[in-house]
Amino acid sequence: MDYFKRTRVARIIVDEQVALNQEIIILGWVRTIRVSKEVAFIEINDGSCIGNLQVVIGNPDNFPVLKDILTGAAVRAVGKLVESPAKGQKYELAVTELELVGAADQSYPLQKKRHTFEYLREIAHLRPRTNTFGAVNRTRSKIAFAIHKYFHDRGFYYIHTPIVTASDCEGAGDMFRVTNFDLNKAPEVNGKIDYHQDFFSAETFLTVSGQLEAEIYAQALGDVYTFGPTFRAENSNTSRHASEFWMIEPEMAFCNLDGDMEIAADFLKFLFKYALDECADDMAFFGKWVDKTICDTLEHVINSDFERLTYTEAVKILEKTNQKFEFPVGWGLDLQSEHERYLTEKVLKRPVIVYDYPKKIKAFYMRVNDDGKTVAAMDVLVPKIGEIIGGSQREERLDVLKAHMKEKGMDPGTLEWYLDLRRYGSTPHSGFGLGFDRTLMYITGMANIRDVTPLPRVPGWAKF
Ligand code: 4AD
Ligand code: MG
Questions:
Q1: Ligand 1, closest atom to CA 211?
Q2: Per-residue pLDDT tens digits for 166-219
Q3: Rounded mean pLDDT, 95-100
Q4: What is the 247 CA–ligand 1 centroid distance (Å)?
Q5: 295: helix, coil or strand?
Q6: For strand 386-394 and strand 429-435, is the pairing parallel, antiparallel, or unpaired?
Q7: Ligand 2 centroid vs 53 CA: distance in angstroms?
Q8: Is 33 helix (H, G, I), strand (E, B) or coil?
Q9: Domains (ranges, CATH) in the chain?
Q10: Distances (CA, A) of 298 to 151, 287, 295
Q11: Neighbouring C-alpha atoms within 13 Å toward the C-beta of 91
Q12: Please, are residues 228 and 435 in contact by the beta-carbon 8 Å criterion?
């Protein structure tokens, strides 16, 4: 194969780095093919960018292979890059050699017509070959890189926190169990499963968050972040929840809630700007086919200050409105997605950071405020999605943390190491979690988390 000799289509039509009249080799998949007596046109996409390269064959009779090339086939084309006389593209390839690498027959499901996203989820192994899913996944890759760049440029260190863990960071109890017991004959003591005999000699789960472990490293390296998969066994079949999703969790020593909110807003703006600047072609595609307002929306966020509201102020706004909600509103109740969206979409029309939530509805590790009723928590809410970031200042005072854990009915025994971080050189510190998949929904305008995740895992679905 000519892997090292081939030219990627993006080099030609995006970077414009390939000289005309040069002989080049293209390796890719056929999007469309039209053959007549005098001429044949093949649109080839090689995945490097949204655009296809049009391949032109002036003497089809000399290319008997044409009759075997159908939509979906993998091909190798050799020819000269020339300016295209036709409208719609700048360049085309005047072909001298054409080879069928891997055939596709009439049953190839992605014939030239629009398919619903629901249908494409059923064929998630083929959907990256569509314009939309190619664009989404290229953008996903570039934004992942941007995340590392943001933190690297600011002196943060990347920590790989464990995926298998014994602690339920969020305390919500929605964890997937990890075991190598034969479930039909798990050993028991006193009528209960004996996890001491399990693989890790303890009850273990897939992590819901790398935060607690990131805190260990923040208390040594200062500024750190994790970026990895997290798992939640909550049975929420919504367009914004996945059972496996990626999360970015920075953790900063010597940083309070105010600094946490500042970094969260700056980080989001950086990612949105990166998308507009570095994914321009794919962003233009989303603007045309997915959400006409998407580029303006991102631009608007980049240029606006994020509003800040205390939870108490937010509840007052929600109590005063005439808007009908499905879930009740009141001080002490958690904000539901409909409330979050109302605040950011209808009231403020831009991202908003809600902070100082009631202690009762938040996790044990959040710093208790002087009022004793609220904690230094913050959520960043954005239009159409609601919560995109959840974060807090962490409780650095050993006695307060112990009392808070007791109040929540937690057994401090399993988290002695976490308490040690407060015993030895404790610092005020803060961090947050940004849902990577939700960020991509926001950037691309795609309305369902199942369509921004390469191979989504949601309740009832773990195919591919
Ligand atoms: O608010 P969450 O649960 O916060 C934490 O896990 C903290 N430990 C983060 C920290 O302070 N280091 O989750 C953080 C973000 C949410 O704001 C949301 O964007 C995303 O993770 N998220 C989900 N994304 C997709 N599917 C789900 N089921 C999600 N649950 C949370
Ligand atoms: Mg949250």
A1: 12
A2: 988 888 879 999 999 999 999 999 999 999 999 999 999 999 999 999 999 999
A3: 97
A4: 7
A5: helix
A6: antiparallel
A7: 44
A8: strand
A9: 9-111 (2.40.50.140), 127-162+210-451 (3.30.930.10)
A10: 21, 11, 5
A11: 25
A12: no
